[in-house]
Fold these 3 entries.
Entry 1:
Amino acid sequence: MRIGVILIMTSMAITPMGDAFSKTLGATYSPFFICFLRYFLAGCLALVITRLLGRTIVVPRHDWFGMLFRTTLVMGAMTCLIAALSMVPLAAAVGGFLIAPIVSTILSAVWLREEVTTPKIVGSLVSFAGTVLIARPETGLNAGGILAISGGVLLGNYLVATRGAAAVSDPVSSLAVQCLLGSGLLLPIALLAGPIPFSSNLITGGLGLGFVTAACHFLTVAAYAREEASILSPFLYFNMIAAVAV
């Protein structure tokens, strides 16, 4: 099996653990604060890892705008998902969010000129059908479902943008910069969203979010640096199996 596929499946397997932490914290805190906390702690962890590895955070000068653009996409996607998690069951939110593989497959063909072969199309459709059977979405869309789908569209765009920047993007640098930059963008909104009460759940949930987010973000960026977006897209649905288990 290709290393990129192994990396993305590993990322998808542990992602729902972070979603579970987010859903638990969602009973007390706003989606903006949870998303800020998630990426701030992940960014701090990335800096520690970078220091331990003796590496330097590098963002090419010509990729500064691209880094900001990708960060905005992933922050928007995660905020939509976290908001959806506070409204609908975890599996239902993840099910709506998983429109991302279809979006990334289409966009990778349009923008990156990746070849869309029959196996890629069949793989995406079969995986999506399995997700629908597991999530069993309701006939009508509610606010949580709309937010989840919106987040999936943003995530699909982010994945394609990440693949497009693979030649100039270092996974460790991307992890640190995107997490800290994203948390900085969200902090003012998080502070305005409402009071932030301190509790033991904030510590345990925050630390859990930070570790899971750092691992998932690094694995995803590393996977898209090694493999075409349209090849990896069907394997994003592995997230659904893990979400049902969680």
Entry 2:
Amino acid sequence: MQFDYIRDPDAIYAESFRRIRAETALGGLEPSLEAVTVRLVHACGMPEIVADVVASPDAAGRARDALDGGAAILCDARMVAEGIIRRRLPADNAVICTLNDDGVAGHARSIGNTRSAAAVDFWRDRMAGAVAAIGNAPTALFRLLELIADGAPEPAAILGFPVGFVGAAESKDALIKHAGEIPFITLRGRLGGSAMAAAAVNAIAGDLP
């Protein structure tokens, strides 16, 4: 038995993005954010998310400038880090996830928070000018905002896509309200995930006009 489906990978790729552009209301988005949004839709299969994409002005362009300058990419989860296409990165950028570093579990217990939040504390020495990509834990995004509010070095951009039923929507609302001058891209509500955070990085690294 054989099913009738497209087998050529280039054809699949081209048709996927043709359908995304045909079915997604991209009008009104600045070109760089449009490129990111197309990748986000591709990652989740839901054109309707465009209504919930929120970004500061030229956030994608400013994140790309940071990557061009060699900025590290700080990831809250291994799945985010593994989803980043290394050959797209413009400056052989370091991709860093501290979740499994020695001492993180103990630090989580000492601060009474999740390992994901504790791992963000291990970013402190590398935060200045980095691109933070959060695609899993709301507590990681909350913790990043807390550190910044307490005077930690500011990242060049925050890509905030935590997912779930507890804290995800709230953490992204906090990002929108408290990012200040830090460029950010996020998606209101519960939707998000590692694939979407990685997709945002991949778009910024390789798709911007």
Entry 3:
Amino acid sequence: MGCIRPFSCFLVLLVGALFVLSPAAAQNQYFKTKADFALIMDYESGEVLYDKQARVPMMPASMSKLMTTAIVLDQIKSGKISLETEFEVSEKAWRTKGSKMFVLVK
């Protein structure tokens, strides 16, 4: 079954992952992940609840996408942009190496 709105499906997956990785799960001494790197932090206190190689430098890859999503959701919440806001991508940017998920050149 496909997803009609890919961004909506991404949010559902993200929220599901956050539910599974709740602070209660992170405090469990048996908590394990196959991820090479992980950091779970309490949003309000900043307390690190779980980390796995958190201080080892790594390429940002998916973290960039997650942070972009967080910023976009914050801007939507504040009313500065909406789900209908379009962003233009230059051909030069489109041709650069890296992920181009759902990006079309205008």
